[in-house]
């Protein structure tokens, strides 16, 4: 079946612009995660949803970052007033339930802020 | 603080040679442990996981990993590498106390020479 998809795959934004990154999880997957991967680093946790409930947003670096999953499927990560330090690959992952612990990752969105 | 360490940033091996990638974790209790592989432009793919039980776990693509509690390690091995194994490898851990977020190491880049 289809895996996790993310769009756009690449995004260039000028400093100060707002961006929205989309994640389509695997159908039926309850949990959805966002990670940020800076160049040469491992992914770092941003936030986590179980269905439409955002259970953990402790990794969001500032109040400029906002994520939502209003109907418990597609999720959007929004970054307001982008800064150069926001340049990274943003990875989305989903898992079937909170007890399976296997996260399936999308290809990521590479954000470059100029 | 909970952390995952991959001591080797970059490893080069000859095709057909054996491989071992190191991973150490620092957690209050033994976490769930994972190895992921990331090829250029691709998402993270799960190679194998350890939750409990047999300390030698088999994964996809001929990889295996051994959990050693005394050394807080979860090293990845392959007896004979193929050119297609060239990629970035990430060790990750997940606390088994209901928090689903993965903590990743910084990754090891594997180069294969003919």
Provide a descriptive summary of the structure in words:
- The complex is a heterodimer of chains A (about 110) and B (about 110).
- With about 110 residues, chain A is an all-beta fold.
- Chain A is built from no helices and eleven strands.
- Chain A has strands at about 5, 10-15, 20-25, 30-35, 45-50, 55, 65-70, 75-80, 90-95, 105, 110-114.
- In chain A, the strands form two sheets. In chain A, strands 2, 4, 5, 6, 9, 10 and 11 form a seven-stranded mixed sheet that branches. In chain A, strands 1-3-8-7 form a four-stranded antiparallel sheet, with no helix packed on it.
- Chain A starts with a strand and ends with a strand.
- In chain B, about 0% of the residues lie in helices and about 50% in strands.
- The N and C termini of chain B lie far apart (about 40 Å).
- In chain B, a hairpin with a 5-residue loop joins β5 (about 30-40) and β6 (about 45-50).
- Chain B is built from no helices and twelve strands.
- By secondary structure, chain B is mostly beta strands.
- Chains A and B meet through β4, β5, β9 and β10 of A and β6, β10 and β11 of B.
Please, what is the average pLDDT of chain B? 93
Structural class computed from helices and strand pairing of chain B: mainly beta
Chain pair sharing the greatest interface: A-B, 26 and 24 residues
Task: Tell me the radius of gyration of chain B.
Answer: 14 Å
Straight-line distance between termini of chain B: 41 Å
Oligomer: heterodimer
**H/I helix tally of chain B:** 0
Order of helices and strands of chain B: EEEEEEEEEEEE
The SSE string of chain A, one letter per element, is EEEEEEEEEEE
Low-confidence stretches of chain B: none
- Overall, the morphology of chain A is globular
Give the low-pLDDT segments of chain A.
none
Q: What structural class do the secondary elements of chain A suggest?
A: mainly beta
Helix content of chain A: under 10%
What separation lies between the terminal Cα atoms of chain A? 37 Å
């Amino acid at each position: 079946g289809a895996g996790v998809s993310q769009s756009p795959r690449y995004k260039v934004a000028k400093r100060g612009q707002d961006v929205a990154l989309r994640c389509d999880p695997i159908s039926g997957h309850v949990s959805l995660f966002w990670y940020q991967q800076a160049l040469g680093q491992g992914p770092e946790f941003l936030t986590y949803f179980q269905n439409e409930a955002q259970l953990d947003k402790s990794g969001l670096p500032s109040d400029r970052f906002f994520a939502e999953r209003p109907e418990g499927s597609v999720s959007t990560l929004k970054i307001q007033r982008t800064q150069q330090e926001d340049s990274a690959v943003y990875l989305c992952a989903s898992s079937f339930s909170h007890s399976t612990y296997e996260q399936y990752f999308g290809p990521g969105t590479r954000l470059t802020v100029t | 603080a909970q952390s995952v360490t991959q001591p080797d940033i970059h490893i080069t091996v000859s095709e057909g040679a054996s491989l071992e990638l190191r991973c150490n974790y620092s957690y209050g209790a033994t976490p769930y442990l994972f190895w992921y592989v990331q090829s250029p432009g691709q998402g993270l793919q799960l190679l194998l996981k350890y939750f409990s039980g047999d300390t030698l776990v088999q994964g996809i693509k001929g990889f295996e990993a051994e959990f050693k509690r005394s050394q807080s390690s979860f090293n990845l091995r392959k007896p004979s590498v193929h050119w297609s194994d060239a990629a970035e490898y990430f060790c990750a851990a997940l606390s088994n106390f209901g928090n689903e977020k993965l903590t990743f190491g910084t990754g090891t880049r594997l180069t294969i020479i003919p």
